[in-house]
Design goal:
Layout: H1 3-11, H2 14-45, H3 49-66, H4 70-80, H5 85-101, H6 105-129, H7 151-167, H8 176-196, H9 202-229, H10 246-249, H11 262-289, H12 293-303, H13 308-319, H14 323-341, H15 345-368, H16 390-407, H17 417-435, H18 441-462, H19 468-490
Helix pairs in contact: 2-9, 4-8, 5-6, 5-14, 6-7, 6-9, 7-8, 7-9, 8-9, 11-15, 11-18, 13-17, 14-15, 14-16, 15-16, 15-18, 16-17, 16-18
Length: about 500
């Protein structure tokens, strides 16, 4: 090392030099990506014949392959949905909310700004280019708007790319290549499905990928400049956007074993499941062979109040207990609970409750095989029998478990809303299901029996609130530590 270099090192200019070198390299990469996208855009805009021939050949070949099987089309559509706005927008909003809960506002802002930019870029360029969608021999899917660039390819590249940048510090070093690879495979799969479904050309997908990569590169560079101006170090991008946030982003860094003696606990849960199933089967067998008089009278009486307005209202209440609604609420609550209390145990409690409810309902319904009430059924033919009610049982289990978890960890007055919802939501769903002619009152009784027995089994085996106070104190201490570090930085 020369004397001049030693002076530079001592004067503290080495970090600046390293930052400048990385910045120049980053700008070169971004410029190369942007230039490639610009060339592709011009080729598409001016209808370059070799590119059009390639697009047509790929679209026709994949269409012949996909259109030969309904199962293949269904799988392609399911994978494609992971690049749609219905998945990406809630995912970004939820992750930003979790970052705010963990006191990490900078990456939360990065997610929201970068995601909003992608939402603007997609329709703007489509309107500017005005390329029509492919016309294939056997259409298996359709999509609105113009074709170039692919919004699914652009959105998946941006969202999953920036999620990798944000969450990378929380992933152990040996798992980071797998984490990045998983995101890359998902982005590639979404792009492939858009071509195979016949709604985009190959060049549309390539354009979406390049534009998305250029956009997250620009915003990541801007984020690094922001850190630099705030007096924070700027390590290589391979360490993530905020390497120091790794501890705060890990789901439960201080939690020990989620369940001690997991094999013994698993055996206890299995035995409890068998016991609950037996109880449901015995009850279902009884009410099917000796039906109480009110069991058919109540649905018939409710049918006399039917009006178009009440039909619509009952449909909405019924939807609150279907699989999609229950799954969405569970997928929202579990990450928030994990971010707030840094414990896997309540999440496991909710997951086991809902899995057990679903399997108990399906097995009991198949074993009992009870007919639906002898009235007009507004929902038509259902794939399962009447006892017990799956809608009511799922709603009961979900809101009861949420109330159990929150009541033990929150001391605010608003917590009493959760027990109220645990009563109101199932009652509304039960009334709507009987009004629509889909269930007897004793089916409601079966749902109550399933909920009470199954949650009791899991309460004694999982012990979801065993360390509730410890988790709350740990979250408060972590928040105080983050505030302390922030004050030291400002000072």
């Amino acid at each position: 090392m020369t004397d001049d270099n030693r002076v530079v090192e001592r004067s503290g200019w080495a970090p600046v030099r390293h930052f400048a070198e990385r910045s120049v390299l980053g700008l070169f990469v971004v410029a190369a990506i942007g230039l490639t996208f610009g060339v592709l855009l011009l080729l598409v805009r001016f209808h370059w014949q070799p590119l059009q021939d390639l697009d047509r050949a790929v679209a026709d070949g994949l269409n012949r392959w996909a259109s030969g099987s309904d199962a293949v089309v269904a799988v392609l559509q399911q994978v494609s949905s992971f690049g749609g706005r219905g998945v990406l927008v809630p995912l970004v909003v939820l992750l930003a909310a979790l970052l705010l809960v963990r006191r990490r506002p900078r990456p939360a802002i990065y997610l929201l700004v970068t995601g909003a930019g992608a939402l603007i870029l997609d329709p703007s360029l489509k309107a500017l280019i005005g390329r029509l969608r492919p016309v294939v021999e056997v259409p298996v899917a359709s999509a609105p708007g113009n074709s170039f660039p692919s919004g699914h390819a652009l959105g998946s590249m941006v969202v999953y790319g920036m999620i990798v940048l944000v969450l990378l510090p929380a992933v152990r070093r040996r798992w980071r290549p797998w984490f990045i690879g998983l995101a890359a495979v998902l982005v590639a799969a979404v792009g492939f499905t858009r071509i195979a479904l016949g709604v985009h050309f190959l060049s549309d997908v390539l354009g979406g990928w390049m534009l998305g990569l250029a956009w997250i590169s620009v915003t990541a560079y801007a984020f690094r400049i922001w850190r630099r101006e705030a007096g924070r170090p700027t390590p290589p991008i391979t360490a993530g956007l905020e390497p120091e946030s790794g501890h705060d982003l890990r789901p439960a860094p201080a939690e020990g074993a989620v369940l001690p003696h997991p094999w013994a606990k698993g055996a206890e849960i299995l035995v409890g499941w068998v016991f609950v199933f037996g109880l449901l089967y015995l009850t279902g067998y009884t009410v099917t062979r000796w039906t109480p008089a009110f069991d058919e009278a109540v649905p018939a009486w409710l049918q006399s109040f039917r009006t178009p307005s009440l039909d619509h209202l009952s449909w909405m209440w019924s939807k609150a207990g279907d699989t999609h609604a229950i799954l969405i609420i569970s997928l929202i609550f579990c990450p928030i609970a994990l971010a707030l209390w840094r414990q896997w145990r309540p999440v496991l409690f909710l997951a086991l409750t809902m899995i057990g409810e679903l399997t108990l309902f399906l097995c009991a319904a198949a074993a009992v095989d009870r007919p639906r009430p002898p009235v007009e059924q507004l929902d038509g033919q259902m794939p399962t029998s009447s006892f017990p009610s799956g809608h009511i049982a799922a709603t009961m289990c979900l809101w009861a478990v949420i109330a159990i978890i929150v009541m033990a960890r929150v001391r605010r007055p608003w917590r009493w809303i959760l027990p109220a919802l645990a009563v109101i939501m199932p009652l509304g769903v039960a009334l709507s299901r009987m009004y629509r002619g889909m269930h007897h009152p004793t089916d409601f009784l079966g749902a109550m029996l399933l909920t009470a027995a199954w949650i009791t089994v899991l309460w004694w085996t999982v012990r979801p609130n065993a360390h509730a106070e410890t988790a709350t104190e740990a979250a408060e201490e972590a928040a105080q530590a983050i505030d302390g570090r922030h004050l030291e930085t400002v000072g």
